[in-house]
Amino acid sequence: MSKARAFLVAAATLLVGRGRRRRLRPGEREPIVAAPTPRSPDAELVAIGLLLASAASAIAFVVIYVLDRLPAHTQLLGLALGLAFVFLAAALTVTAKRLVPNEELEDDYPEQEHPDEQERVVQVVEESGLTRRRLFVLALGAAGGSIGLALLTPVASLGPALHLARFSLTPWRRGTRLVTEDGEPYRADEIEEGTFYTAFAEGADKEALASSLVLVRLPKSELDLPPENAGFDADGILAFSKICTHAGCAIALYRKPMFAPTDPQPALICPCHYSTFEPAKGGKVIFGPAGRKLPMLPLAIDGKGFLRARGNFDGPVGPSWWGVRMKRPTT
Amino acid sequence: MIRALVRFLDQRTGTAPFLRRTLRYLFPDHWSFLLGEVALYAFVVLIGTGVYLTLFYEDSTAKVVYHGPYGPLQGQEMTHAYRSVVDISTTVKAGLLIRQTHHWAANVFIAAIVLHLLRVFFTGAYRKPRELTYWLGLTMLTMALLEGYLGYSLADDLLSGMGLAIGYGVALSVPFVGANLAALMWDGPFPGSYAFFPRMYIVHVFVIPALLAVLLAAHLALVALKHHTQFRMSERESERKLVGVPTFPGQTPRSLGLFASVVAVLFLLGGLVQINPIWLWGPYHTYSATNGAQPDWYLGWLIGALRIVPGFDVVIGHYTLVPNPFWGGVLLPLAFFGFLYLWPWLERRFLGERGYHNLLDRPRDAPLRTAIGYAVATEVFLVFLAGSADRVDVLFGLPYIPQIWAYRVLVIVGPFVAGFLAYRVCVELQRGERVEHERRRAEHAARVARSRA
Amino acid sequence: MRRLLAFGLAALVLAPAAHAQTGDVTRGRHLYGRYCIACHGANGMGVIGGRAEGQKREGPPLVGVGALAADFYLRTGYMPLRQVGKQPRRSRVLLSEAEIRALVAYVASLGHGPPVPRPQPERGSLSEGLKLFTDHCAGCHQVVAQGGFLTGGVAPPLDRATPTQIAQAIRIGPYLMPRFSPRQITPRQVDSIVRYVLYAKHPDDRGGWAIGHIGPVPEGLVTWFLAATTLVAVCIVLGKRLGRE
Known about the structure:
The complex is a heterotrimer.
Chain A: H1 2-22, H2 41-66, H3 73-99, E1 105-108, H4 115-127, H5 134-152, E2 178-179, E3 196-201, E4 212-217, E5 237-241, E6 253-255, E7 267-269, E8 276-278, E9 284-287, E10 296-297, E11 299-301, E12 307-309
Antiparallel strand pairs in A: 2-3, 3-4, 4-5, 5-10, 6-7, 7-8, 8-9, 11-12
Helix pairs in contact in A: 2-3
Chain B: H1 2-13, H2 16-23, E1 26-27, H3 35-54, E2 63-65, E3 77-79, H4 80-90, H5 95-122, H6 131-154, H7 158-172, H8 178-186, H9 196-226, E4 241-246, H10 247-272, H11 278-281, H12 300-308, E5 314-316, E6 319-322, H13 325-350, H14 367-386, H15 389-396, H16 400-452
Antiparallel strand pairs in B: 1-4, 2-3, 5-6
Chain C: H1 2-35, H2 37-40, E1 51-52, E2 55-56, H3 66-75, H4 97-109, H5 126-136, H6 138-141, E3 148-150, E4 153-155, H7 163-172, H8 187-201, H9 216-239
Antiparallel strand pairs in C: 1-2, 3-4
């Protein structure tokens, strides 16, 4: 029904338009727009209404902005501004669908290429004579390349790209005390089984990757340390770097079995990609993408009962890189 | 009034002929041609909201103790960067609306680019003479991914810090030069010197946006110079004839309507749906972490890949040739984008694609391309899904480790299966069309014969 | 003075409870025989390597775990366990209130163990709670307590945990969870953690619809299923010209 009406209207306007085109009155122009402007007062009214609603919403945004004591302020602001654009979009959609002439035109695609012009460009360059001076072109290349290199050189100042010693530097040395986040030294007898502690090198920057440790205590009977880590524990207390050897996240998970016969064995886990390390075996990887064991720090208990490092880590801290297995950690 | 304006412009710039042609430039008709515009409008929103955010953000990692109005963070030690983002979200009037809109816009921007890329790939729109347009678009996608990652990282909350740590691990994993590269970018080992955040900041708010703007201008200029591609919807469209709606009056309200729609969706989301509530995550320290940290969706495929690679470094003697994060974090994106960049050439070289195209294929018209595209998309999608295996375990109790093994098998088998299926479907659709065509012809012939008799 | 008052109150509350216990213990022993003895053994001595009807039947000893642990496991529905060796999960509590009280009294009578804790979150500090939660709990439970995965198990979301259960879990360390002693996390600090976990159930969602407090995964879903779908629909509406319907 409405289609039929639309068709009639279109046909009628087309007829009228044709009639008009045939006999141009003086001062009248040949039309460019190929389709008639649709006559739809209803649509026009709707569009006007929507535009006014959009304006009202935008004003509402300003009002809400000023009244900042309102609850859910962000939501009201978003709603007002969002609605302003919703109404605008609706108005423009009505405009596109009902108010503008519905043209469908044809046009030629641009030419694929311009062989003559191409030839001319080549000719101009060749006739300049510069390209034939081979040595000149070479020298020009040399100058350009060298200047480029010169301009790029300061990039090297961005960081110590050739001094990688800092990658194996740690704050740990024989005798360094283990302290809490607040700087209180850890006593050996406060480290209990079945839980984990975060420790730092006394006096060191806590954010440095090699500074933080995760401490756990296991029954000595359950320790199965590899030969190179023999004696790293202090009375069953084990210290590992808290930074995962896969991608550098913090090992913030310690799982311990409630009931050893049925539950999984104790493990340290990284919550980013779930690399899982077994503390009883010196930080061996038992699941996940990590390619290196967790670095272990040898511990000792001093005369006053405080925990101290007995040396440096058994391997470099943090994610792997090409030289990670070449150098032992240094202080 | 209009005449006066046009005259003014023409007299000073001589652009009246250009304006006239622009107004009558033709846009062929298909909804999928609007996806690129969605990305463009999201980019406009990103610039607008982003500029606003720079007026409040502080790019310093110096420590400060929080004494603002948000209770749970009282007395916590944090960086100025994080504090400033908490302030934007809590004390700056309308700050949270703008911040959330910015973040949603980033998510939608890249989603729109991906949809646009899928359309361009599966319809063969990238073919000669439009390879440059395609390569520019791909470059914008890579830039956008990096830009999104940097924006996510600048907030310096717990999640963004963990993301940076992973980025550092991935940078280190580049064979031969990884540590050198990381030392350059971070000015030493992670978490880097005071200079690192300002570097990220300037790259995020100036270098990449400027690059994107330039690439975008070139992309659009190339589109206009070679005109749009089109589907063959009737006998009128051909390789030489373009059929469409002129910029004005036909296309303008449509494009503006789309622009308003994009802005509307983004502001509505920005106001009504919470995104990255950094005040809840708390500040980052290298020694703290939260479970199930994820990047924004467009980097989800990388975390999936990092998680399903089995644990090994490739080592020769004491030299670590390939650290583990390389496979998922460097090789996979390199292979994916390498494939996309090389594809137009591969198609010409190996699939015998020749010629000069203004008409688009339907996916079924090029079964091999469709099959290969499907295979690659499936691979990326599977790796992407693998990144959510932990959440699936928590929510639905599907055990994680078997899931990971399933994905390890699926990422090898899945693409072949998907590619094969896509190929079969294309061939069947083509055959169906041929049969239909034959039937119509026979019917027509019969009718003609009958009318003759 | 205030402490004295608290003691007085506690005495008032506890005295009748102690009185009721003897009867409860007898009933509890009976229930224990029915639900628990197969895995936890006679008199809560525990069973290691046991089997019955072709199924594993083993469980830890309960001597000395106290009312604290029994109350936690029974009221979360963790026990009775459906399958030995599987992670206990929060499920419907099958026992009645009276049965739970009787069982708890019986288990408590098996040895000297801690009583049911009574955390006072209103005494804790929210910001200290967040800090402690980040340091000790977020690695598994996620920073807004939405739960998380770890190899071997799942750290449950804490949206249904009661203050008492939070305090109990900290001390027990159910399944793979670490066990935090009062020396590592003081009762006052437990109050703070409880306060934070309660806060995390309904945190400050000033941004609007919270979509789960776990960050990018639901945000990606909204991006694709809400935003991208809407915009594609808009493209379809706008992209279709009048003449071609």
